[in-house]
Design a protein that fits this description.
The complex is a heterodimer of chains A (87) and B (271).
Chain A (H helix, E strand, L loop, with lengths): L1 H7 L4 H17 L6 H16 L7 E7 L4 E7 L11
Antiparallel strand pairs in A: 1-2
Chain B lengths: L2 E6 L7 H14 L4 E5 L7 H4 L10 H5 L5 H4 L1 E2 L6 E4 L12 H14 L2 E5 L6 H8 L3 E6 L3 H17 L1 H4 L5 E9 L1 H5 L6 H8 L3 E6 L2 H9 L3 H4 L4 H13 L16 H6 L4
Parallel strand pairs in B: 1-5, 1-6, 2-4, 2-5, 6-7, 7-8
Antiparallel strand pairs in B: 3-4
Classes of the chains: A alpha+beta (87), B alpha/beta (271).
Amino acid sequence: MNLFRLFSRSQSAPAARERLQVLLAHERASAGDSDLVVKLRDEILRAISKHMEIDSEKVSVKLERGVQVSTLVVDVEIPFDATRKAA
Amino acid sequence: MGKVIVVTSGKGGVGKTTSTAALGAALAQNGDKVVVVDFDVGLRNLDLVMGAERRVVYDLVNVIQGDAKLTQALIRDKRVETLYLLAASQTRDKDNLTPEGVEKVITALKAAFDWVICDSPAGIERGATLAMRHADVAIVVTNPEVSSVRDSDRIIGLLDSKTLKAENGEQIEKHLLLTRYDAARAERGDMLKVDDVLEILSIPLLGIIPESTDVLRASNVGAPVTLADGRSAPAMAYFDATRRLKGETLPITIPGEKRGLFGKIFGRKAA
């Protein structure tokens, strides 16, 4: 059984190599704190908080760094308070 | 005028101290005058690996603060007479290392030795940046493992920006020393291969040190691995690395790799 597992297991080194290549490409580009995606995240949240109070528990920021493109998903829950009038 | 080498890695536990001791001893065994300097203030270990832990009286911080003369603080190896150790302080913290103090000590050591080998602490803070500051040559110690490779990449960035050579617009000479390499696991596809690491970090290869019980055995008895058993696989790999350091072009051999792969081995480019 163990022997079977040993032989049927897929190789892990290619995954290590690929993950490192993607990660380091991003880290090298952002050396000196100029990571665009992180800047965007901060500015987007700042812009939103100007107009409404953001409950930090209700904000989900997802970042996916890819080889060619990175995606930033900012998901902000906007509460609807019927008792309050719009400012 | 001697050459200043920094042995660095970012990540801890990859073999900086082992490599500093082994390379320093190997160079001295060839007759060169060598001093190994421990920069890990607060967590010194080079003295232990060198087997000189009971003979430390003064340390680097004492010299910097003027409590001791450099000649008083240098500990001569009992086995190789051209090998010396300058220990780090165990009781002070790393704030006692000042840029001016370090510069004075390194300048004095350079005038007296052929090689000044600085054993960097892990991390990227003061101790690590001061250890690399005056280096002519950097040896980046890396394990074939993702976190070590990432940290090495970070350190290479610092070597290219925070060293005196970099600030003067010169290139610091950088070499990769791949340690704890297991050829069988790499062959099975469960460990990054030499070429994977070289491609990712893109600095020339100084040597491949195999994973070996001889390394632990040597540190147990307080001897650099090149002195403990000069015929062991890691010792021979370190001897080859020192020859490359001195400018020889040697084919890189992968310790423990199958005989059938000789063509591949000799086709590889050395540092």
